[in-house]
Specification:
The protein is mainly beta and about 500 residues long. About 10% of the residues lie in helices and about 55% in strands. The protein contains five helices and 26 strands. Strands 12, 13, 14, 15, 16, 23 and 24 form a seven-stranded antiparallel sheet that branches. The protein has a four-stranded mixed sheet with strand order 1-3-6-5. Strands 2-8-7-4 form a four-stranded mixed sheet. A hairpin with a 5-residue loop joins strand 17 and strand 18.
Length: about 500
């Protein structure tokens, strides 16, 4: 004991230097009264505490010196230095071996500086900071998820790994965002086809029991290179001339020309109006379309293994609620259609065993391609503000001429020996997105399109030709009334006429 006490007293010269290296303020502990006493002390890491004793101490016992270092300044004053995180006990004894003071010390990371930064950079929040070993726990309430994320990122600067920060912060503000989207696509196509084909036969020479001794035929087949033939339309006989020989009115020769003509204009309108709701920071998805199989391989028996790919009108968005009612919105939308352009054709085959015998067949597979229009962006909007994604315009023109070489190039008359094929396609996609901060409502304030619907009975359907007998809100008086204002799919009860 004497040797330990002398070594502690000899270390007094090191106390000022050690405290200077720590560069921490001292924590004063209240002096206990006479007799043994127990105190619980939270000692910040790399900080010191001054212990003032009521009587002279002879011995100091530290359970874990690697956690807390005790240095005797005078018989009634000692320094405790937090060296590592953890729990330990320190005992002070007098010359008779009686216990003067029992300290239960917990050394944790100092969080006073972190609290100051949180008060400075997140002033509207009430955040508690607790150190648990090497971890930091954040508790309390913040106005928005943006403030919660900001507090967590600040706390990560005080630990070695971001995983050492546990955020238990709750958000007081509205954290649900409803995105109202309108996806409008227009497709316009124009098709023109005009073609002339000739065919005939010429018989000559001596006429025998089996017909003429000599004969030959001719004809043209001018296809449509762009659209692989006429897409229906008008097929008319332009001329037909028969030449009759002198022997028993036998057909001697024949010539015929056919005309194929088609003009088509098409218009496709696609409209989708999905409404999606998601919590701040989470992602919501929407798809109106379908799935088609795509072969990915074959098993040992030659059976095709497929995966299903989605197509149609797709939407996904991720909102983040910010301060002041602003919403950071990451939105991605896509409109896709199946098409034969770029499709993949896989040829079939046979399956042979080790001896070369055919034991099965593999059918061919046709894999369609996708025509895709896609847009993705991140914007910041107020609640009720709208953004328009436009300018996704496509314009494609294709033209082909097929005909008889030489003859198709003759001015004026060349039109009788060729086919013209013209195709023009134009598309435009517009996306309008409007986010709203929303709150739950009562089920009584909501309605569906089938509320008040009653299917017509037998006599009404047979005699009056009705599909439904009543279609109105329960208890509503619609006698002599007409619809005024918005109608259809109503999302806000206040707009109900």
């Amino acid at each position: 004991m004497r040797t330990r006490l002398l070594s502690l007293i000899a270390a007094l010269a090191l106390v000022p230097a050690f405290a200077g290296q720590a560069q921490q303020r001292d924590v004063q502990i209240i002096t206990p009264g006479a007799g043994a006493a127990v105190q619980h002390v939270d000692l910040p890491l790399n900080k010191s505490a001054i212990i003032n004793l009521p009587t002279n101490a002879r011995d100091v016992l530290v359970a874990k010196p690697d956690i807390v270092d005790a240095v005797i300044r005078t018989p009634r004053q000692a320094y405790l230095l937090g060296r590592a995180s953890g729990d330990t006990s320190v005992y002070f004894l007098d010359a008779a071996g009686n216990q003067i003071l029992d300290l239960e010390i917990r050394v944790d990371r100092d969080t006073s500086g972190l609290r100051g930064m949180l008060e400075r950079y997140v002033p509207d929040a009430v955040i508690g900071v607790d150190a648990v070993g090497e971890d930091i726990v954040l508790t309390g309430a913040v106005p928005s998820s943006l403030d919660a994320d900001r507090a967590r990122r600040i706390a990560e600067r005080w630990v070695e790994e971001p995983e050492n920060v546990l955020s238990l912060l709750s958000v007081d503000g509205v954290e649900q965002v409803m995105l109202k989207v309108r996806v409008v696509e227009m497709q316009r196509s124009l098709l023109k086809q005009l073609g002339v084909n000739w065919n005939g036969a010429v018989n000559f020479g001596n006429l025998g029991p089996n017909g003429f001794a000599n004969a030959f035929g001719y004809g043209t087949s001018n296809g449509f290179g762009v659209n692989a033939g006429a897409q229906g339309g008008l097929a008319a006989s332009l001329a037909s001339t028969n030449y009759v020989g002198a022997l028993d009115d036998t057909l001697q020769s024949q010539a015929e020309a056919s005309l194929q003509a088609l003009e088509r204009a098409g218009l496709v309108r696609t409209l989708q109006e999905p409404n999606l709701t998601a919590i701040s920071g989470e992602t919501a998805n929407f798809l109106a379309g379908g799935e088609f199989p795509v072969p990915t391989g074959r098993d040992q028996e030659g059976n095709i293994i497929v995966e299903f790919k989605q197509f149609g009108v797709g939407l996904n968005f991720t909102p983040v609620v910010m301060s002041g009612g602003r919403i950071s919105l990451k939105i991605a939308t896509e409109v896709s259609d199946l098409t034969n352009q770029g499709a993949l054709q896989l040829q079939g085959g046979v399956i042979r065993d080790q001896q070369g015998n055919v034991v099965g067949t593999i059918p061919g597979v046709s894999i369609p391609a996708l025509s895709v229009r896609r847009a993705e962006t991140t914007v910041e909007l107020p609640s009720g503000g709208a953004i328009v994604i436009a300018g996704l315009i496509g314009d494609e023109t294709r033209q082909a001429i097929d005909g008889l070489p030489g003859a198709k190039d003759i001015p004026v008359l060349g039109a009788l020996f060729r086919s013209d094929d013209f195709l023009s396609e134009q598309t435009e996609l517009v996306v309008i997105a409007t986010p709203y901060l929303v709150q739950p409502t009562s089920p009584d304030a909501l309605s569906t399109p089938i509320d008040g619907l009653r299917v017509a009975d037998g006599p009404e359907a047979l005699l009056l030709g009705r599909l439904n007998s009543v279609y109105a809100a329960p208890g509503a008086d619609a006698q002599g009334r007409t619809w005024q204002g918005p109608y259809g799919h109503i999302t806000e009860p206040g707009n109900t006429p």
